[in-house]
Amino acid sequence: MNVNAVLGDDYIIRGCRLLGGTPVDIRVQSGVIVAIDSASEQITSYGPSIDARGLIMLPGLVDLHTHLREPGGEDAESIASGSRAAAAGGYTDVFAMANTNPVTDSLERLATVLVAAAAQNSCRVHPIGAITIGLGGAEIAPLSKLAEAGVRMFSDDGKCVDDAKIMLDALTLAAEHGFLVAQHAQHRELCGAGQINAGPVATSTGLAPWPGIGEEAIIARDILLAAETGGALHVCHVSTARSVELVRFAKAQGWLVSAEVTPHHLLLTDDLASLGNARYKVNPPLRSTHDVTALRRGLLDGTIDIVATDHAPHTANRKLGDWCDAAFGMTGLETALAVIVHVLAQSGKVDWALVARVMAESPARLGRIDDRAGRPIAVGESATFCLLDEEREWEVTKTAHVSKSANNPFIGCVFRTAVIATAIDGRLTFASADIAIDQR
After folding, report:
1. Is residue 185 part of a domain?
2. Within the chain, how many helices (H) and strands (E) appear?
C-alpha cells in the first residue's frame, strides 16, 4: 500500500502522545501542522487519518555522526540504503562523515555527495567536510570554501587530527565562519595499535590495549584550543569517565565545547570483548562499567549534549576472522532509539523530553539545521516527526534490517520500543506494517 497516496496532503494523526503526554489529535495540511486538539474518542469528521492511539510522537531524530560509505564503500552501505535505515530508526536528518573514497575534502567531492543525497527521499543528508586533505592529517582542507558552499560541520572522524596547529587553524576558521569542528580523539602514540579497552580484559585476552588516556589527552588539548580561538569544538563518541569530566570542566568555563555519546557506549562494556566476536569491536572501544556509569550520568545532567549513532556499516567479510584483522565499527541507526529508551528505563525513568532533546533538538542546533529539523511539534511547524510504540517488543536479528550491513552489537537483544512511522514535511518516509490508516 502506498501510504502517502492514501493519506494525501490533508490528514489527521489521532490520539498520539506528544513527548509521552496526554493524547491529542493533530491535523496536517500540505506538510504543516495546522491544529492540535485534545483527542476525541468519537470521530466527528471524515477523511484520511493515522490511528496513533497509544503511540508516542517525537520530533524527527537527527544524527550528527553517520557513515554512509558512498562513494567508494557501497558494498557495505550507500546513501540510499543508509537513508532508508535512518528513516526506519525514526531519523529525518543525518550528517554523513567525510571518510569515504574519495574523501569529501573539496567542492567537487561535496557536489558528488549532494547529488546522491538529492536522488533519494528517505532522509535529509547533510555532508560533513574533512578537516584535512584526504584525512591525511598534514594539510588543512579548504574549510572556508566548503563552509561558503553550505557545509556546517567538519571532521576527520575515523582518524584523529593529531597536529595541534592544524586543529588550532580549523577552530580559528570555525569561529570566523560559524561551523562546528568535530574531533575523533585518539592520540597516535598513546593508543598505538590498540584493539580493546586497557584493563583486565585486555590483559586476559592478550590483545593490544587502547587506553582511555589516548582519548582524554586529545580532548584536554582541544578544549584549550577552543578556548583560545573561540571556535566550536565537538567531541565525537566520548567513552571514558575522565573525558566526561574534561567536557564538564570546559563547559563550566563557558567554552564552546559539546560532546556526543553513542548508544553502544551507554549500554555495553568491555567484558563483551572476551567473547572474541568482532561485532563488539569498535573505535573507541567499549569501556568499563565505571565508564558506562559516568557516561550515563553525563547524559542525564547535560554534560554530554547528544546521542549520536556512529553508524559504521561493514560487509560480513570485514567482520570475520581474527579480532585484530576485523574492522572497527557497528551499525546503529535502526536500534539507537530503542537502546536509549532501554538505558533511561534502567536509570529509573524514561523522560521523553530528554530523548527529544538529545536525539533531535540539540543535534539539529549543533549541526546548524535547527531552522528545519529538531523543531517542536506545534501549530505552524512542519509535520516532521516519528511515531513509536513503547510497548511493542522486538528482537534485533541478523536478517531483519534495512541497512546493507548486519554488524550490529545488539543482535539477539529484545527491546520494547519500536518505530512505527517517520515523516518529513507530512510525507511518511517510513511506515511499519503495524501502522493503521483510516480512509474514511
Report:
1. yes
2. 14, 21
pTM above threshold 0.90: yes
Computed from CA positions of residues 107, 113, 119, 122, in that sequence, does the dihedral angle turn out positive or negative?
negative
Please give the residue that has the higher pLDDT: either 1 or 94.
Answer: 94
In a domain, 377, yes or no: no
- Residue range 375-387: mean pLDDT, rounded: 98
Give Cα 141 to chain centroid, integer Å: 24
Please report, as a single letter, which amino acid is at residue 414.
Answer: V
User: Which ranges constitute the DSSP H helices of 119-152?
Assistant: 143-148
Q: What is the C-alpha separation between 13 and 422, in angstroms, rounded?
A: 12
The catalytic position among 310, 351, 389, 434 is 310
Measured CA angle at 80 (ends 400, 2), to 5 deg = 70
Number of other residues whose CB lies within 10 A of the CB of residue 412: 10
CATH number at residue 113: 3.20.20.140
Q: Please state the φ and ψ torsions of residue 252, each to the nearest 5 degrees.
A: -65, -25
Under the banding of pLDDT at 50, 70 and 90, the label for residue 426 is very high
Do the domain assignments include residue 200?
A: yes
User: Is residue 303 within 8 Å of 294, Cβ to Cβ?
Assistant: no
From CA 237, how far away is CA 261, in angstroms rounded? 5
- Is 322 part of the annotated catalytic residue set? no
Residue 100 in any domain: the answer is yes
Domain span holding position 306? 60-366
Q: For position 440, what pLDDT does the model report?
A: 66
Can you tell me which residue has the cell 490508516?
437
Q: Which residues contact 401 (CB under 8 A, 6 or more apart)?
A: 85, 331, 334, 408
Q: What is the pLDDT of residues 128-184, one digit of tens each?
A: 999 999 999 999 999 999 999 999 999 999 999 999 999 999 999 999 999 999 999
Q: How many domains does the chain have?
A: 1
Whole-angstrom distance, CA of residue 135 vs CA of residue 109: 14
Query: What single letter denotes the amino acid at residue 205?
Result: T
pLDDT at residue 42, as a whole number: 57
- d(C-alpha 263, C-alpha 307), whole Å: 7
